[in-house]
User: Fold this.
Amino acid sequence: MAIPFTKMHGCGNDYVYLDALRDELPDHLPELARRMSDRHTGIGADGLIVLAPSTVADARMLMFNADGSSSEMCGNGIRCLAKLAADHRHVRKDDLRIDTGAGILDVTLQRTGRLVTGARVMMGRPRLTPPAVPVVHPGHGPRLDISVTINGERHRLLAVGMGNPHAVMFVDDPDSFPVAAVGPRLERHPRFPRRTNVEFVARHADEGGLPVLRQRTWERGSGETLACGTGACATLVAAVLTGVIPGREAIIRLTGGDLHIAWPRDDAAVIMTGPAVTVFSGEWSG
Assistant:
């Protein structure tokens, strides 16, 4: 059975997308995610995302990491999912509601002419209690500091939930930090019962009146990726809670591009704005 797909990315965080509003959904999605995501024998991606029907929103987002494990949602992925829904004419409006494993999120498409080029997403309020992240922690939040030792070296993290778990680490230089060595150990640390995404972050010089935070991410189930949208939101929240930045918005500089993230108030949703790009479409017969 040939499976129609679309390859898309947000700041280089790339996924294979299936349109279950138009096409029959194949069986064994976790295994399909592993095969399609393989960068040597498959299409090559950070995972598989399905545009699916919803009874409570305009569409539903199903997400599988490159290793076939499921995930609640993806910040870069939801922007592309909304673009796909518009490009395939399932919706004819710019304000959408997407049903995800992290709840129903509001997405506003951004266009250049008629072309959808990006989106703004209301990512929901950060989850800052141990059960909501989830993380094993004796405190109650909102600041969930953690200290762990890996290979004899102590690392300080801040746990933040954005519908999926994150651990934010402020380092001197993310670009020289041994992400590939430390990331997988933190991802599977026993303090995180559902594993965790890990952000390695440093503050750079301001641009256009906004602080710039350089971020590299080790993603749960996918390894290091060029970008992580929920991770960018977690980074902004951690920077606010720790006083790394003076305000409540910043440019998050990812390896694959920039996202604008804002957290207007403690009781408000985090707002993410960034690009959505279609790479190519095809049929999978593997």
Summary: The chain has two domains: 3-122+275-284, 130-268.
